[in-house]
Specification:
The protein has 15 helices and 2 strands. The chain has about 325 residues and is mostly helical. The chain is globular, with a radius of gyration of 20 Å. The N terminus is likely disordered. This is ABC transporter permease.
């Protein structure tokens, strides 16, 4: 058996999911006109927040769904993105591209070091060590009294784009976030469909066999871990601009758990599912929060029912319904 024939391929399953992603992006593009027609501009900010978390969920799914790496400290990269905006802005660097570059560089270094250590473990040990590194980052930013510590830090303005303050407009910020989501989805789609992605999937299924035929699981998983962390930090940059506020709460272990819930709800190992899971989770949070102060209870019941009756999440439910029609 050669390495080329041993690497699994997921090509047949990608086409319908790609169509689903295109439908989602079209619907996202229609949100601002609908919101303006409803005369409720605040909904634009909620929608922007949803798109930013969709980026983070998709980045996590790249390593969780395709690399079988359950990172419970992934929200740390959200924090790096938010604080890149705050810290650089305090020094007069407000250009969003420079802030994104700073967030990516810090995240890449952190992911490289912590990933190299974490990937020497497996299973629950990997989960716990990523949680530990995430909490280390969390408490580090709590100690930064110059940036509000545990109370957080308000931004005086949003990031600029080549000197222009166009992101001060909520609709422009929304479409900028959507553009980043689409670009990163295209990148992830390319990665998953590439030889690298197929090797990563093979490692998920049987790392011993992949190593036996000449692939190094450690190198491939570490590369995916770094890419995922960098992508998540970009979501943090956008979240900071959406909220105009940064806080260590963005990088708490609770937030990491929420990202995992989004991926599970949407369907593990499906990029489109991760996006849909983020949308579903945050919309449920908003709707249930308006109905009752005990919304977490009802959300938990919904999640349990989803896992019991559709283990592959929303994606699996949709594919099952499509199969019945056909």
């Amino acid at each position: 058996m050669t390495a080329a024939t041993a690497v699994p391929t997921r090509a047949p399953a990608l086409a319908p999911r790609l169509k689903a992603a295109l439908v989602l992006f079209v619907l996202f593009a229609l949100v601002p006109p609908v919101v303006m027609a409803a005369d409720d501009p605040f909904l634009i900010l909620i929608a922007t927040r949803i798109l930013a978390y969709a980026i983070a969920a998709m980045a996590l799914d790249l390593i969780l769904g395709y690399g079988a790496m359950v990172s419970f400290g992934h929200a740390a990269y959200l924090g790096f993105g938010t604080y890149a905006v705050a810290i650089l802005s305090s020094y007069g660097v407000t250009d969003i591209f420079v802030q994104m570059l700073g967030a990516v560089l810090v995240s890449a270094l952190f992911a490289l070091v912590t990933g190299a250590i974490s990937l020497r473990t497996r299973g629950v040990y990997f989960i716990m060590i990523t949680l530990a590194f995430g909490q280390m980052a969390f408490f580090f930013f709590i100690s930064l009294s110059a940036y509000g510590g545990d109370d957080g830090y308000g931004l005086s303005q949003r990031s600029t784009v080549l000197g222009s303050a166009i992101l001060e407009n909520d609709v422009t910020l929304y479409y900028a976030t959507l553009a980043v989501l689409i670009a990163l989805f295209a990148l992830c789609h390319r990665i998953v469909g590439s030889r690298f992605g197929r090797v990563l999937t093979g490692i998920r299924e049987n790392p011993v066999r992949m190593e036996a035929i000449g692939f190094s699981p450690f190198r491939y998983q570490l590369t995916a871990f770094v890419i995922s962390g960098c992508m998540t930090s970009l979501a943090g940059v956008l979240l900071a601009n959406q909220a105009e506020f940064v806080s260590p709460a963005f990088m708490s272990w609770h937030r990491s758990g929420e990202l995992i819930v989004m991926v599970v709800l949407g369907g593990i190992g499906t990029l489109t599912g991760a996006i849909g899971g983020a949308v579903a989770a945050l919309l449920l949070e908003e709707v249930l929060g308006m109905l009752t102060e005990h919304w977490q209870l009802w959300f938990g019941i919904f999640l349990v029912l989803m896992v019991l009756f559709s283990p592959r999440g929303i994606t699996g439910l949709v594919e099952q319904m499509r199969g019945r029609r056909e």
